[in-house]
């Protein structure tokens, strides 16, 4: 497939910046325009070589674009879609890097209107506790999954272009229905984030929080790493995928109540059986990933 | 302080094996006897140089010991204490590596009887998702905290010997009351383990567990690392510290119910405020650790 001549990245943070760097490293893109509200962040992206040009106006930047990646927090995407709709060239393809898909698709339908067929939703399942252009790296997506959730309106060549771009970044591209995507990600990503935040929040609310945390080890550091994510990003994700996330939360609360009852009863046999099942499932998952 | 001539390590796993390796590396010990039920594990400890001699009988091994480290799962400690009580030399000091302290102290009082003054309880706050002698390393305790919870009966020189041994391992030795230790560890270690197990257990119970987990990223790997701990060890810890752990679990359940209510109400402002507090507390903790 021919390289992308003009890529416009709206929101040049970890996700957008890494996409641009990876595509550049692969020779998959010519000119990259970065759009954002923070001039300091765009300057870092320029210095890093992630973008060739910085712009403040998404609409003007979108003119002449072959591919537009919307990589802002998902709560800001509705506005972005509306601002570019009238400026997109006829053959432009638009994609996104949002962690939820149904809400982003709804925002795209509202904002892009009749141009919706140009929008191929995608979610790179990759991240870090770092954020901003300074955290971007050409390697972020190597070996990681990118889930594309095409719309019925998408022409095959638009989907192919988005798949190709992510493959250039070294990613493993899969396809899912948007509703399935949101259900699965609620279970394996959104709920764990909510739990890590809730856990740290509960500790933080104590008068002796620092004294208690002083005795924590490396295990807690790993367990709470998800609570290092940017609060506004995760607020948006939780609200956007609220229904699925609430369902997962209820399931977990039920499981936790069951574990609490075993503990109260001192039922070591059943506790250990649960721990065994958990450990075995984790091991099977990690072994499967290595294949 | 003069080196330990004869160290007896009962339970030569990650904790016991690493203690022996670290003391040897520091020149703090002469002869090390390892006691365990698994001959294969003791052979690995011998091959690794963690122990100089393998024994099956704890009582016989304890004869002539300067220092005995009981590093079995805490559920097995009562039996160990009883088996060594009549064999300990007059000046021997006994310590342990258990993750709970009140229950271990109760087991020691019952098992050691009039020799209880020789027992200086301790908890190295260090670990790994690996286990067994093969995972042992002389570096495990470097820079880590070891919490000593002395008994009123302990002569100062017994406490000093245990502190000295852990310092030889590179550890930072602190002192706490047993009840405070158990309360703090329930919050920063035992509950997170229980949550990680419960989370994986809930996923594992699904018909489509593997399919769901196939879409998980590196964040989930970190979040669930505590669920890689040995089930029998964590069953023992949960049961031994049941009261404090149940208290922590109830607190967390309340927090989670609150977060669920905010989510249900779509209260993004309050959700973000909680995420912010969590993230800030985690950052302050990690910055404090680096000092």
What's the short story on this structure?
2 copies of one chain form a homodimer. The model of chain A has no long low-confidence stretch (mean pLDDT about 95).
How many strands, which pairing sense, and closed or not: the largest β-sheet of chain A? 6 strands, parallel
What distance lies between the first and last C-alpha atoms of chain A, to the nearest angstrom?
29 Å
- Of all protein chain pairs, which has the greatest interface, and how many residues does each chain bring to it? A-B, 88 and 88 residues
Question: Strand-and-helix sequence of chain A, N→C?
Answer: EHEHEHEHEHEEEHEHHHHHH
Overview of this protein structure:
- The structure is a homodimer of 291-residue chains.
- The relative contact order of chain A is 0.11.
- A six-stranded parallel beta sheet of chain A has the order 3-2-1-4-5-6, sandwiched between helices. A three-stranded mixed beta sheet of chain A has the order 7-8-9, covered by helices on one side.
- The model of chain A has no long low-confidence stretch (mean pLDDT 96).
- Chain A has twelve helices and nine strands.
- Chain A folds into two domains: 4-176, 3-Layer(aba) Sandwich (Rossmann fold), CATH 3.40.50.720; 180-290, 6-phosphogluconate dehydrogenase C-terminal like domain (6-phosphogluconate dehydrogenase C-terminal fold, Orthogonal Bundle), CATH 1.10.3660.
- Chain A has helices at residues 14-25, 39-48, 58-62, 77-84, 102-112, 156-168, 178-204, 209-213, 218-223, 231-240, 242-265, 268-290; strands at 4-10, 29-35, 53-55, 67-70, 93-96, 119-120, 122-124, 145-148, 172-175.
- The first copy, chain A, is α/β, with parallel strands linked by helices.
- Chain A is elongated.
- In chain A, helix 4 runs parallel beside helix 5 (102-112) and helix 7 crosses helix 11.
- Helices cover 53% and strands 13% of the residues of chain A.
- In chain A, strand 8, helix 6 (156-168) and strand 9 (172-175) form a beta-alpha-beta unit.
- At the A-B interface, helix 7, helix 8, helix 9, helix 10 and helix 11 of A face helix 7, helix 8, helix 9, helix 10 and helix 11 of B.
